[in-house]
């Protein structure tokens, strides 16, 4: 039996680091995961252990090459964003991988926005809400003024996906999906680095921009294979939908954050949208994607535990609660989607008295009503009046029948689908370089859909 050609995808999250092997039909034929203990940076703040991550990549590839049933054809990477690896002229890592959750120095922040016209102006021009270290360009700005000795030693600052690619190719590159994601670096109107990046000589720290479907040859490893240049994870997760559907759609990618992505809305971000946590991504083909964010998954976990404690039940019981239209009828009387505050406001369920509910089932339905109410506002921000008929939901909430039924009622003029596929981010990362490694046609059924209708007899 001949060995199966595979592509290896490293999908690196802040908590879990995963390796997937996909065959030419995009079936997962092998997977493994690892978690690393964080180290601390030079200021004592927890950060990614880049040495452990590097060993994970090399050890995993050595392991794959020993598997006689597979032939490694290509490798690619997707990782979380807003993380820079700084290397010197010899390719040596010369600084910690600073954690984007670290508080940004107020004095440096004020210095920057005073120099470049204020927060609202910069946010609008870079399509990036003011997010401190989550704006990865601000990390370099901070280094320049707080650690000039380090800034002067940096030859290249590579976003994490491109650094992992560099480990194998020794060719430094910059990818637009990492540069064009709430970094504060890119001027979306000019389609170039923002003026401040040139004035501060930050652009000199970035390697040449390279198309996201570029492949290079490996310089490290026991065998020869192609290496992609890496992708930002949110942009990678959108790729299976872009290649499977030509009709305009909006995708709500749900998890800790629920991110509404509209690849068909290229209108400039407004001040109101920016204040409500909207931003723009750049997808792997270079086009802008308007997005809005909602911390709904986190809210769901917190409030679910609160309900479970109050009613003395285990949290796993909520997995089996079916959608009950009668409960929704009783609860919906005080809900008016159009009159509620927008997505950035405090969730309504936070202030609800749990003693007003008869049981945990009723309380949980109210929680989902409140979350969907807020999700409606968040998603509506990226719809912006455009006539888009399809709404896809993937991730955790796509498996929640209460969320899905209520969402269908919140958007009665749209076709609402729960989408499922195996590992969307890793899959998209593999598809990004399909033409370079895979001789077969892309499967037409990569995304599987379940339709949710919105009966007019039960308006939300």
From TrEMBL:
One of its GO terms (biological process) is xylulose metabolic process. Keywords: Kinase, Transferase. GO terms for cellular component: cytosol. InterPro entries: ATPase_NBD, FGGY_C_2, FGGY_N. The keyword Hydrolase does not apply. The keyword Transferase applies. One of its GO terms (molecular function) is D-xylulokinase activity. Residues 7-197 form the Carbohydrate kinase FGGY N-terminal domain. Pfam families: FGGY_C_2, FGGY_N. SUPFAM superfamilies: Actin-like ATPase domain (SSF53067). Residues 247-434 form the Carbohydrate kinase FGGY C-terminal domain. Belongs to the FGGY kinase family. This is Sugar (Pentulose or hexulose) kinase. The lineage of its organism: Bacteria, Pseudomonadati, Bacteroidota, Sphingobacteriia, Sphingobacteriales.
């Amino acid at each position: 039996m001949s060995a199966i050609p595979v592509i290896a995808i490293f999908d690196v999250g802040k908590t879990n680091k995963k390796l997937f092997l996909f065959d030419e039909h995009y079936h997962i034929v092998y997977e493994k995961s690892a978690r690393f203990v964080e180290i601390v940076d030079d200021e004592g703040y927890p950060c990614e252990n880049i040495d452990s991550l590097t060993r994970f990549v090399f050890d995993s590839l050595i392991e794959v090459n020993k598997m006689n049933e597979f032939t490694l054809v290509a490798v690619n990477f997707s990782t979380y964003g807003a993380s820079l690896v700084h290397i010197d002229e010899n390719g040596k890592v010369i600084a910690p991988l600073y954690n984007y959750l670290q508080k940004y120095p107020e004095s440096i922040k004020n210095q920057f926005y005073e120099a470049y016209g204020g927060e609202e102006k910069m946010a609008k021009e870079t399509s990036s809400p003011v997010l401190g270290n989550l704006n990865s360009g601000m990390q370099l700005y901070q280094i320049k003024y707080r650690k000039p000795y380090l800034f002067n030693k940096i030859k290249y600052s590579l976003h994490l996906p491109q650094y992992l690619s560099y480990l194998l190719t020794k060719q430094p590159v910059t990818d637009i999906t990492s540069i064009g994601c709430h970094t504060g670096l890119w001027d979306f109107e000019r389609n170039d680095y923002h003026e401040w990046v040139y004035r501060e000589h930050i652009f000199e720290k970035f390697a040449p921009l390279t198309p996201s479907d570029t492949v290079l040859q490996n310089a490290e490893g026991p065998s020869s294979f192609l290496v992609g240049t890496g992708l930002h994870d949110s942009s990678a997760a959108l790729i299976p939908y872009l290649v499977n559907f030509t009709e305009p759609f909006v995708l709500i990618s749900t998890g800790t954050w629920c991110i509404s992505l509209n690849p068909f809305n290229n209108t400039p971000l407004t001040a109101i949208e920016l204040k409500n946590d909207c931003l723009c991504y750049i997808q792997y083909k270079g086009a802008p994607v308007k997005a809005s964010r909602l911390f709904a998954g986190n809210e769901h976990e917190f409030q679910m535990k609160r309900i479970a404690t109050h009613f003395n039940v285990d949290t796993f019981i909520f997995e089996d609660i079916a959608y009950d239209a009668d409960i929704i009828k009783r609860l919906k009387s005080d809900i008016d989607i159009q009159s509620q505050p927008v997505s950035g406001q405090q969730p309504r369920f936070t202030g609800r008295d749990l003693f007003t509910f008869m049981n945990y089932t009723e309380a949980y339905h109210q929680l989902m009503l409140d979350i969907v109410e807020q999700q409606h506002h968040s998603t509506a921000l990226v719809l912006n009046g455009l006539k888009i008929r399809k709404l896809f939901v993937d991730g955790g909430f796509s498996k929640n029948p209460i969320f899905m039924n209520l969402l269908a009622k919140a958007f009665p003029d749209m076709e609402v689908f729960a989408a499922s596929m195996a590992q969307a981010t890793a899959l998209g990362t593999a598809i990004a370089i399909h033409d370079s490694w895979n001789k077969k046609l892309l499967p037409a059924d990569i995304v599987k859909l379940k339709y949710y209708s919105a009966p007019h007899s039960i308006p939300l």
